[in-house]
Amino acid sequence: MTTATHTLPDATDENPGGPFALSHLDALEAESVHIFREVAGEFERPVILFSGGKDSIVMLHLALKAFWPAPVPFALLHVDTGHNFPEVLDYRDRAVAEHGLRLHVAHVQDFIDDGRLRERPDGLRNPLQTVPLLDGIESNKFDAVFGGGRRDEEKARAKERVFSLRDEFGAWDPRRQRPELWSLYNGKHAVGEHVRVFPLSNWTELDVWQYIEREKIDLPEIYYAHEREVFARNGMWLTAGEWGGPKESETVERRLVRYRTVGDMSCTGAVDSDAATIGDVIAEIAASRLTERGATRADDKMSEAAMEDRKREGYF
User: What b-and-e string marks burial along 270-292, b requiring 16 or more CB atoms within 10 Å of the CB?
Assistant: First the structure.
């Protein structure tokens, strides 16, 4: 009798874990897919926050993979400040149409018009997103809300778990966070509470870009170098537009820039860059010593605890 034997290939310098080891992107992808499936099995009405930014785009890509060939079993929710980049809104609408998704939009302008919110003297609208966000969650009775936040973005986000409990007012209390040993997630919540879920918690900005390159994910063109009319304010290049910039004392100039993150135009700055391809962007990110929010978001520079204060009130 002949006995068949199989010998596993050895590890090499190029692949020290052996030919069957997961790459770091494979491991991150598998963890995120597991989180999406865990939420689908544990909650009744989950929703994905989708802004058309790179993190929410990667999040949607992972959700599509998690349930393929079935459709994504979640709706999308976008808080529109009224001052979003047109390129990003176009991308959002194309993605919704392409994948047959349901999109809920909470408009900040509606809340200003009916008096529930008041325009800020500094013109920033990012801080005004919390009330429409919480209203959208409550009115649709969403019990799990996926966000694209990553721990490397900002120190308050570094404190959050993958499953982050919010009370009946949508507020976050760091003291109520549950341990997540061995990737065991606790979605228990009382009526009226909900859980924010962050499938990209363990990703870095560089991981996100490397994954976008590997998966050939399309992005809004403002993430790559392009010429744009901008003006300087508080150390950032802001886009001139109908939202209120520039002031009389500020001068508009045309520069070669790109965006590392996208949000409300009143507080999202561009960076000088000639990175026109995804390879150029990855090289630029790898050499950067500033986080994307530290480099380009005015609302995070209002105080040392600006993000944590907003998260306690119910912000993303």
Answer: bbebebeebeebbebbeeeeebb
**What are the CA-CA distances from residue 29 to residues 44, 47, 157, 203, 213 (Å)?**
24, 19, 20, 9, 14
Identify which of 225, 216, 245 has the alpha carbon closest to the alpha carbon of residue 233.
245
Distance in angstroms (rounded) separating the CA atoms of residues 166 and 196: 7
- Rama region for 44: left / alpha / beta (φ>0; ψ in -120 to 50; rest): alpha
How many whole angstroms separate alpha carbon 131 and alpha carbon 141? 15
Q: What are the tens digits of pLDDT across the range 44-57?
A: 999 999 999 999 99
| pTM of the predicted protein model | 0.88
- Name the 3-class secondary structure at 181: helix
Beta-bridge partners for 294: none
In this prediction, what percent of the chain has a pLDDT beyond 70? 90
The mean pLDDT value of the chain amounts to 89
Q: What is the DSSP letter of 242?
A: T
**β-pair type (253-258, 226-233):** antiparallel
Buried b (16+ CB within 10 A) or exposed e, 139-152: eeebbbbbbbbbbb
Task: Give the three-state DSSP class for 62.
Answer: helix
The encoded tokens of residue 80 equal 């529109």
- Distance, CA of 123 to chain centre: 23
Of the given ranges (115-129, 206-220, 301-315), which has the lowest mean pLDDT?
Answer: 301-315
Both tokens of 63, joined, read 């959700």
Place of tokens 């939202």: 243
Residues found in the chain? 316
Q: Are 219 and 261 in contact (CB under 8 A)?
A: no
Q: Give per-residue pLDDT as tens, 70-79.
A: 999 999 999 9
Neighbouring residues of 41: CB distance < 8 A, sequence distance ≥ 6: none
Q: What is the pLDDT of residues 245-263, one digit of tens each?
A: 788 888 999 999 999 998 8
Preceding omega of 132 cis (within 30 degrees of 0): no
